[in-house]
Amino acid sequence: MSKSSGIHYLSDHKAATDARPVPPEVGRVRDTVTAGLGDLLQGALDAVDDSLFELANNARSNNEQNRYFEAMREIRIKRKGVERQFRKAITDLFSHPPRVQQSAERNTQQTPSADTLSLVGHDDLEEQVALNAMVTKANAHFQGSLIPLQARFSQVYAGIPDEEPVNPMAPEYLCEAFAQASEALDIHIRERLIVLKQFDRYVVSNLGMLLDEANRILVQAGVIPNFRYHGKSSPKREAPDAQANTQRPSIDEPSTSRKAGSSGRENTALFDQIRRLMAQQRTTSGNVSREADPSVHVVDGKELMELLRALPMQQTMPESGDLSDGEPVILDLQQLVYSTLARQTQQSGQEPALKEVDEDLINLVSMLFEFILDDDNLSAPVQVLISRLQIPILKVVIKDKTFFSKASHPARKLLNSLARAGIGWNNSDEKAKDRLYNQIHTVVQRILEDFDGDIALFEDLNREFERFLERENRKASLVEQRTRESERGRIKSRKAQEEVDHLLKEKTRNYELPESIHDILINGWSRVMFLAYLRDDSEHRWQESVKVVDDLLWCLNPHQDDKERDEWVRVVPGLLKTLRAGLREVSYKSNRLDEVMAALKTQLTDAFRNHTAISTPKPDTADSQTKEIDSDDEPSSVHDDAALGEYIEQIDKLKIGDWVEFRLVNGASFRCKLSAVIEEANSFVFVNRMGLKVIEKSRLDLASELRKGRLSLLDQGALIDRALNAVVGNLRTKTA
């Protein structure tokens, strides 16, 4: 490729940069990014293989088909080498970080002139244009992550001047790394552009999550944790701009703080509402304030925490050691706490009692877990696992009362993450081999074994769990994307075949065609129509292929009128030419095509000369009987459609990514996620959490399943938020 493009050549940077040891923080980023890009590249090359196979399958000629198959073979043979070279280039970028040129200087150097363009071959120019477009789009789309990341890399690498910052993850370097790695592929420009397109689609478009992860690792290591972007300003305006920028949110999280603030206010208001309802409930029941009763010793917060430490984390442990075995654990937390209080000897002889606020919190934790144990949105094993966290969560709530008022509370975030991740887990999955189940089990087990009152444990566990989910979701999303594209192609092909079969059946149902002509239409021209239907968006040949059928049937009938006979003479030559070209394209009897066309021409000529009909009308009794049956069933059909109306509305509200649960007649059930809605085929495609297809249903089928109670739409809202809303509803009912 010519170096007049806007892409930077890695060898140039490596030669110009001294080797230096990679800082430990950068080493973590490098390992994460290299693994992530490797996974994404595998998905891209899988998609290239699928695209080339599809193109070969729909090729118009043998030469074109062979070219696609040769490209597939070339990529399959050299794929491992390309992946290895790409990973090595990424590693080299972190070992020898390229220095990012200033924008004006870079634009001046990269703007191609007429002289340089004249030296670039057409194929190289096409590749340069594709790469430059890819880089420009990525720089614009991920600017919010690239700017702070460049600043952090420039600080963590030693000896980097401010005017020459470094960023080994800049899109131009990553794209060039792949361009150089793929130079080993001996393929034509059209196939190379397909490779670049899939690289853009699978790798560059998903670069954002790796940039965010790199920023997170460096922030965690203390590298510019509170980044502020001041931009370029003149000396006179530098101070006002700096002051204005200090009032703006960080570029890393432009809207997170606003969302967190809004969410925090909503949660605080909800918690205050719950406390008011509980206080109202106490007033209604006539309970007297405990502080006013001299015979009662009110336990303060510190004393209560000491008492709670005596509570075992786990009341019962399954013999198997699997925390999800058995039924969900149901504990009376208030009774448990008062039993512990009763065992404490009071020197004053006073009866121990809890503060009203502490008792409210204990009751609230009990109501929270009552909701969790009744929540059908949680799969049974995950429900059992979470139920074992009642005592740890109680200790958290008593120690830190912001659990219910702050959505960002570490323990609350962890519970929400566990519930969200477990929504797609099926009872039929093998627990021992399931990575997600093992991870959730490990989190619960560590809380039960390691929690000693330090809430930081929940923060660490949540961070590890989110990192695990990110890796799993990245793999699943690639599989799901391939599944979705495969299903779209399969369903569109099925729809095309159904349309062709129906049309030919309708047009020939009243004729008894000679066997040879029937074979041409059903086994030959139907394939031409099938391809025309699939390519109609770009080639617009569908109506033309249908007209050929109409013309052929018309020409086979006798024509006495002079005008019709003149029309016949004009139509037949073009008809035969179109038929021959189409049948040759689909390789219909390729060894005998001339013989077949000669026989067809003879039959058409005989029909014209002898004024006799080669085709004769069939009795239309079957059609009339079908219409009678359809008319008899019409009232029932209309009634069923009306009954399904409200359920169809619910189905239409389903969004891509929503989870549902199907229940089978034998009592078994399975959960899956809506992956695609293919409107032209009225088809809803569902996948499991690994991204593999599970089931495909029409809109009416789903509405019918919903009506029969065999389909449930799962609520994916935050578990604790849903629980608190349910608690408010219950308290309002009790105090009404």
Question: How are the secondary structure elements laid out?
Answer:
Elements: H1 10-16, H2 24-57, H3 62-95, H4 103-110, H5 114-119, H6 122-141, H7 143-156, H8 171-181, H9 189-202, H10 207-220, H11 238-246, H12 256-285, E1 296-299, H13 301-309, H14 333-342, E2 351-354, H15 356-374, H16 380-387, H17 390-399, H18 410-422, H19 435-450, H20 456-508, H21 515-534, H22 536-539, H23 542-556, H24 562-585, H25 593-610, H26 621-652, E3 659-663, E4 669-678, E5 683-687, E6 693-698, H27 699-707, E7 711-713, H28 719-735
Parallel strand pairs: 1-2
Antiparallel strand pairs: 3-4, 3-7, 4-5, 5-6
Helix pairs in contact: 2-3, 2-9, 2-10, 2-20, 3-8, 6-8, 6-9, 7-10, 12-28, 15-17, 15-28, 18-20, 19-20, 20-21, 20-23, 21-23, 21-24, 23-24, 24-25, 26-27
InterPro entries: DUF1631 (IPR012434)
Biased composition (Polar residues): 100-116, 243-266
Region (Disordered): 1-26, 95-116, 230-266, 611-639
Q: What does the main sheet amount to?
A: 5 strands, antiparallel
- Helical proportion? 55-70%
Separate helix tally: 28
Order of strands across the widest beta sheet?
A: 6-5-4-3-7
Structural class category? mainly alpha
Round the mean pLDDT to the nearest integer and report it: 77
> How many distinct folded domains?
4
Poorly predicted ranges: 1-19, 102-120, 232-264, 631-639
Note the overall shape. flat
Strand content: 5-15%
